Automatic annotation (TrEMBL), chains A, B:
<dbReference type="GO" id="GO:0004516">
    <property type="term" value="F:nicotinate phosphoribosyltransferase activity"/>
</dbReference>
<comment type="similarity">
    <text>Belongs to the NAPRTase family.</text>
</comment>
<dbReference type="InterPro" id="IPR036068">
    <property type="entry name" value="Nicotinate_pribotase-like_C"/>
</dbReference>
<keyword id="KW-0662">Pyridine nucleotide biosynthesis</keyword>
<keyword id="KW-0597">Phosphoprotein</keyword>
<dbReference type="Pfam" id="PF17767">
    <property type="entry name" value="NAPRTase_N"/>
</dbReference>
<protein>
    <recommendedName>
        <fullName>Nicotinate phosphoribosyltransferase</fullName>
        <ecNumber>6.3.4.21</ecNumber>
    </recommendedName>
</protein>
<dbReference type="GO" id="GO:0016757">
    <property type="term" value="F:glycosyltransferase activity"/>
</dbReference>
<dbReference type="InterPro" id="IPR007229">
    <property type="entry name" value="Nic_PRibTrfase-Fam"/>
</dbReference>
<dbReference type="InterPro" id="IPR013785">
    <property type="entry name" value="Aldolase_TIM"/>
</dbReference>
<keyword id="KW-0808">Transferase</keyword>
<dbReference type="InterPro" id="IPR006405">
    <property type="entry name" value="Nic_PRibTrfase_pncB"/>
</dbReference>
<feature type="domain" description="Nicotinate phosphoribosyltransferase N-terminal">
    <location>
        <begin position="26"/>
        <end position="150"/>
    </location>
</feature>
<dbReference type="GO" id="GO:0005829">
    <property type="term" value="C:cytosol"/>
</dbReference>
<feature type="region of interest" description="Disordered">
    <location>
        <begin position="433"/>
        <end position="462"/>
    </location>
</feature>
<comment type="pathway">
    <text>Cofactor biosynthesis; NAD(+) biosynthesis; nicotinate D-ribonucleotide from nicotinate: step 1/1.</text>
</comment>
<feature type="region of interest" description="Disordered">
    <location>
        <begin position="1"/>
        <end position="24"/>
    </location>
</feature>
Length: 462, 462
């Protein structure tokens, strides 16, 4: 592949990213705005509130989840602005009244957000995000917060099972075509958080500095008069280090043609169909016999974590994963909710609140969280810390076996930029690697089981 | 709700939509561009090609699928441009060489696209889209075409089962928070294609002219000192026609409080938890006893098509559907593929091509399709028409029982704008209503079954 500069007349300004920043403000359920209108009218909109994001359960059989999307959320916050066009729409449709439009015109989130670092593992009841501010400023973010965290965490949670099953072999994300075009970008990012080594998605490469990868499609072979001329063309254009797709016609002949075209320096061959464990074995023998001992084998074809695990003993060098990872491998969303857990009362003090429901139980009040580790540094409990608000706010672990989980993300409206952009993704990937390594030995088993550690509540006293 | 104009100094120009048009060109797998480079170098990039989109199977047990996303695809085509920023990224990363960058800089799709009208039902093997042009111009669209059609069709296919199960009662889409923020907009649009009556998503309302709807969240009640003051505030702000959420504390007391706050003109109450068939019955009796005989009952709480069907006999007026519809109710993607089926050979004639595979069988050559109807106008077969290229190109049904399915979408690069924007969604919804009504009686049953009609191949002769 050549890395020539673009022709000079097209050379862009360095600051131009090509991703114009659209307002994210209307990625919002209508009722957030109508509730705001009612609360502005009766004065409760100014009450100080704490909203909390958590999930009541993991998908059936899953042992842990992975927080992802935090960086994207912080990026989206900066474009959560009601501009002329947004206000005109809301006015034209009669969604809210003039007083509310005026509030929205000046809307900036001036509150505070803390939560689990992106990449951190979570469990049922983990308070993964805490959003604090007036009711008005915090309620408006509900839909956007949940959309981002539910999607990205679902993908990262599935992806982590795959990188776990791959025991060190690279997993490559190739699922863009099986999900919405913008979800595809976010999904590629989420798989990177969970340890994927590359993505086919160019926009994800551009936006988040991810490594992009690619082989070739059957269409490229079919375009040519025969497989040999297709392979020759690809090697001429991309060099012998390229990956040739050898299963368009006959795999054994495809491998012969591939080595003939690229020589024994051929980078890799890809298998995209058939009985992969068997085929990989055959192809490895054939490549070795042809002298292409360094040529790698990439497999794809509807792989999920179970198929990856089943290939552990096969001579496979990397896994191309599509549909299953971008759709959360059976769990396309996380079921995270955004609940009001405390709000200022008429006396000006913060009071815990919770819906009274037999089936949807929520614990009121602000919470913190910590992971309790045993002497070897393995996680044994998810500790959720509640109690009087000032006690929870000021809480820090008093014993070395508790690793606190909340980190500051937004302080009085100012975003902590460590979590955003390409550096944010890299930081999240490190966080995930450490967090997963800390889980007890059975945590990465694929068979259905209980959460890897139990969630326990602890209540501080005054 | 008030519909006052925005304050004058914010009045936007009428032409400003607030949705700046970002380039969609990098929503593309890297290998499309590297294949292009190799094909440009050996001249095959200029070969005339026909790519076809189809799915090999429906999700397990499903009886039909619904084509959706066509309008979005045509809209995305117009921004599929490699601008300075895109070219700079590709150059900087060494994705392709200078000749390819130059080709991309001038890229416009000048080809022709035909396919099933948006909203049309489809079956395994239905050739839902046909993209024709040079290899270069058609191969670049693969990822974008599939992302859009796979996502939107998955949602519309699930949504159609729900509107079918609701037998005339309105279904309302409220799932934005359970899917990626941009998927949420596309999902709202896809549910409208399948007959949903409204969406909570404001951005979808703005972009596609959809009716937006909303009630209130538990947080609004919890924000207030008690339920009565919350309801009073909502009614003051939004009028008695609003929908009050009555299950934050005790449903029976909630209903009493609601009618007390709004009077017997109360628009609706919403139930979001508990045993809905039983609760709806109780609440209906209570509302009637209080004189609120016109007050409607909206139910939500993890509804899917089966839960909707189970509520058929309950006194429910509309269904709020979230997670299950935006995630395709167990089938979050459609499995549609984009396959090269014919390409110009060295002699300049179009030749059918297909991958030789036991497991992934594709029929080579350009295809058309028609639905065969019985005397009462009910569909009995999906007829896929293949054969010599000129015969298929010129084919029109010669009997009245065949309804042709392909419509022109793009002609020599010119988009047929009937399918785009808000009018496109309305047209698609009409198309779907007609297409579903034409299916045989068992087609909308929710139980697992075979495709509602068999797909048969017919081969024309010279």
């Amino acid at each position: 592949m050549s890395a020539e500069p673009p022709s000079p007349h097209r050379s862009p300004a360095a600051s131009h990213t090509g991703t114009e920043r659209r307002s994210t403000a209307l990625h919002t359920d209508r009722y957030e705005l109508t509730m705001l209108q009612a609360a502005l009218a009766d004065g409760t909109a100014q009450r100080h509130c704490v909203f909390e994001v958590f999930t009541r359960r993991l998908p059936p059989g899953r042992r842990y989840g992975v927080v992802a999307g935090t960086g994207r959320l912080l990026e989206a916050l900066s474009t959560f602005r009601f501009g002329d066009a947004e206000l005109a729409y809301l006015s034209r449709e009669g969604v809210v009244d003039r007083a509310t439009l005026e509030y929205l015109a000046d809307y900036r989130f001036h509150g505070t957000i803390s939560g689990y670092a992106e990449g951190e593992c979570f469990f049922p009841g983990s308070p993964v995000l805490s959003v604090e501010g007036t009711f008005a400023e915090a309620v408006l973010l509900e839909t956007l917060v949940l959309s981002i965290l539910n999607h990205d965490s679902a993908v990262a949670s599935a992806a982590s099972r795959m990188t776990g099953a791959a025991i060190g072999r690279p997993c490559l994300e190739m699922g863009s075509r099986r999900t919405h075009e913008e979800s595809a970008v976010a999904a590629a990012r989420a798989t990177a958080v969970a340890g994927f080594a590359g993505t086919s998605n160019l926009e994800a490469g551009r936006r988040y500095g991810l490594r992009t990868i690619g082989t070739a499609a059957h269409a490229f072979t079919l375009l040519h008069d025969d497989e040999r001329s297709a392979f020759a063309a690809q090697v001429r254009a991309l060099g012998p280090g390229t990956t040739l797709l050898v299963d368009t016609y006959d795999v054994a002949q495809g491998v012969r043609n591939a080595v003939e075209a690229a020589g024994t320096d051929l980078g890799a061959v890809r298998l995209d169909s058939g009985d992969l464990p068997f085929l990989a074995q055959e192809v490895r023998h054939q490549l070795d016999a042809l002298g292409a001992t360094g040529t790698r084998i990439v497999v794809s074809s509807d792989l999920d974590e179970h198929a990856i695990a089943a290939l552990a003993a096969a001579p496979v060098d990397s896994y191309g994963v599509g549909t299953s990872v971008v759709t959360g491998s059976g769990a396309p969303t996380c079921g995270m909710v955004y609940k009001l857990v405390a709000r200022e009362g008429p006396d000006g003090t913060l009071q815990p609140v919770a819906k009274a429901s037999a089936t949807k139980k929520s614990l009121g009040g602000r919470k913190q969280a910590a992971r309790r580790l045993d002497e070897s540094g393995r996680a044994i409990e998810e500790v959720v810390v509640g109690g009087p608000d000032h006690a929870v706010t000021g809480w820090t672990p008093d014993t070395a076996d508790l690793r606190p989980l909340h980190v500051p993300l937004v302080n009085d409206g100012a975003v902590d930029t460590r979590w955003t952009g390409a550096p944010g993704v890299a930081l999240a990937a490190q966080t995930h690697e450490r967090s997963r390594a800390e889980l007890p030995p059975g945590a990465t088993r694929l068979s259905a089981g209980d959460p890897a550690v139990p969630t326990v509540q602890t209540t501080l006293t005054d």
